[in-house]
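Look over this record as teaching material.
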Amino acid sequence: MAFRSVALPGIGTKYELETDHGDALAIVYLENGSIQLYASPGRRGEACAVELTPPESRRIGSVLTGAIMEAEEEGIEIAFAALADLRISIHTYIVGHAIAGRCIAELQIRSRTGATVIAVSRGEQHTINPSPDFTFEQGDTVVVIGGVDQLQTFEKVILGK
């Protein structure tokens, strides 16, 4: 697998990947914010191109990393190149009746699971880094960060899944 990046003055940056099977991918981050994806299946067919918006690109990136994609819940796992052993998972959950009306401190989320609530979305209102006295309402979308095992514990202990 060969990988390289090329600066394209006045255009953006191109990243090229050649797979072990001889296929080629090129991703061009344009200065205007859009992203172009080119795929060339080696000797097996014609090349194709797709233009993506930044949110579409992030979604594709999540899929390629094996992130969980569900209708009401979504998660990603982040791996750092410089810290190969470190994997951080971020997952969203929809608050149900089990924790509605209860606050973060009362639930003792961090001490019981090791996971941390980093944001809550309620309709059009988003709360980043909610305080321990933040009270959940049914239907809130909760963003939780931690290791995979910590999120599994959060699901069992806090959400009762």
Notes: Confidence is low (pLDDT under 50) at residues 68-72. The two ends are 40 Å apart (CA to CA).
